[in-house]
Amino acid sequence: MSQPIFDLAVIGGGINGAGIARDAAGRGAKVVLLERGDLARGTSSASTKLIHGGLRYLEHYEFALVRESLIERERLWAIAPHIIWPLRFILPHQKGIRPAWLVRLGLFLYDHIGGRKLLPATRTVKLASEPAGKPLKPQFTTAFEYSDCWVDDARLVIFNAMDAAQHGAEIRTHSEVTHIERRDGIWHIEIAGQPPIKARAVANAAGPAVLELLARTTGRQRNAAETIRLVRGSHIVVRKMFDTPQAYFCQNPDGRIFFAIPYEDDFTLIGTTDADHKGSLDDIIATPEEIDYICESAGAYFKQTITAADVIYAYAGVRPLVDDGSGKPETASRGYHFEVDVDADGQAPILSVFGGKITTYRHLAESAVKKLAGYMPILDGRSWTLQQPLPGGDFPTDGADNLADELQRAYPFLPASLTHRWVRSYGTLTRSILADAHSIADLGTHFGHGLYAREVDYLIGKEWARSASDILWRRSKLGLRFSAEETQNLESYVAGKLRE
Question: What per-residue confidence (pLDDT) applies to 281?
Fold first, then answer.
């Protein structure tokens, strides 16, 4: 039997790869996505978890990038209201860094250049009379409150992969591409421990490893100009520092910024840093120096002092930014560009993605597929991802509470905290997970902190989870609460299910 040929092989299971696979599959292409580990295992689960325009990018005159991001912000909220929701930010005015009029001008542009329709506008805040001022040191008297959105970054990747699969794509995790070669107008792709596959086109969405993949490629022209800048961003998680619903956007004297964000009900997420990354891409960690920097930065703004000893969890991700020659890593462009290489007959394209940010992933994917469509007639011209909800997101942007109430009435045995988490994780898919459950006992073994066997089985069967880590840190953030013993019990259960 002859080996089937895919129309498109997408290499990389981060947000850009999942987005490209979804878009192309929805246009009728036979797609396979190859990821060497778990979906979203790298940069795409190590972000600051914001859908935002990037207020600080205005200072670097990246007006087009900010506008594109702001336009996408409400579009993404509309198609994924279960994992994206509005968040107000408090920007305390720090005297001596930027004059208040300049900050207000930047926020005026931020409110108006991206077609904001639903999110509330910026307002000036007198901190002494606002609850949002209580966590801050008393020298901060004035602030600006503006809007952006929060996102569960890893679940955004999962839902794009799920939608790709629902449109016929094959999603193959733990499938490391070791070599790709163009022969007779077809790409031959070797995968560690698996039979090779063939594809008419390749999308290289390997993120920080984009150049590593190109180095394993034969049958393409080398482009001496292709280069990226690897910038590491680190974050810390500490016990809740404030009870206000807003997040905080703070400016440091060195020109860098950080966010302090309400996180998973009981915690505060603080980050990020910007540092050039020179080491391995396999073991990326927040360094002690970066952790200390974040703690010291927070201490300059908040009454509560934190040190490295208060850090419950720290993580870091490497952003593959376009190297635009910027002197400092924090000023490197968050824009993106593509390189397309074809054979002598103008066929068998390989498109490589350089740069990008999570907020612009959908538009990036659409642009990538449109570029590939010039070589692949099977890719029709429909722009379909703009309004099509992601799995579980088929309800209004203000409908999460109504959905939770509906589920609570239908399944009154559910703890309210579990209903809340499931709505914010699965949206309307929660109904299919619960299915015929009539009591809490029907959810099976309780592993702790609201994680039951029924949810674990769903994650293994529908979301490609293969380990406790996949479940506790990417499909959820329950790893913040699980003990070593609870984690081991879950790991044993998952291993048993995979053997069945």
Answer: 86
CATH class as words, domain 400-499 = mainly alpha
Q: 216-220, 295-299, 420-424, 472-476 — which is least confidently predicted?
A: 216-220
The label of the residue with tokens 């990018």 reads 57
Contact criterion met (CB below 8 Å) for 157 and 40: yes
Q: For residue 353, give both structure tokens.
A: 């993605």
Tally the residues of the chain. 500
The answer to whether 146 and 111 have CB atoms below 8 angstroms apart is yes
pLDDT bin (cut points 50, 70, 90) of residue 220 is low
- CA–CA distance, 373 with 367 (Å, rounded to integer): 10
**Angstrom distance (rounded) from CA 33 to CA 13:** 7
* Topology adopted by domain 5-43+155-226+334-373: FAD/NAD(P)-binding domain (3.50.50)
CATH number of 84-152+228-330: 3.30.9.10
Write down the domain spans for the chain.
Answer: 5-43+155-226+334-373, 84-152+228-330, 400-499
Strands 228-239 and 186-191, how do they pair?
Answer: unpaired
- SS3 string, 255-302, reads CCEEEEEEECCCEEEEECCCEECCCCCCCCCCCHHHHHHHHHHHHCCE
How would you list the strands of the sheet with 202-204, edge to edge?
170-172, 31-34, 8-11, 202-204, 350-355, 336-341
